[in-house]
Amino acid sequence: MTNIQRIIVNYVNQNFVKGSVTTEPIGNDRVKIIDKTGESMMFSANIHCDIFDCSIKKRIAISDLPHTLDYSPFLEPKKWTNLPQ
User: Fold this and answer.
1) CA triplet 29, 30, 34: central angle to 5 degrees?
2) Is the dihedral of CA 6, 17, 65, 51 positive or negative?
């Protein structure tokens, strides 16, 4: 699992009921989220660790990291603000 996938899983763990979904790393930068009925969705993230739903190609959550290019790439978000869909 890559660093960005670990960050996406952290987002999932903070925003889904524990045990309601499983996660599966896909490639180098995506995570598949699967619920108990077998329905799934795919998440990815950008350089600022904002979360994107790959199926609708939209940002669904904004991280608490600075959204500038002069921040340390070693910072990791602690929380996200979910966007209305």
Assistant:
1) 160
2) positive
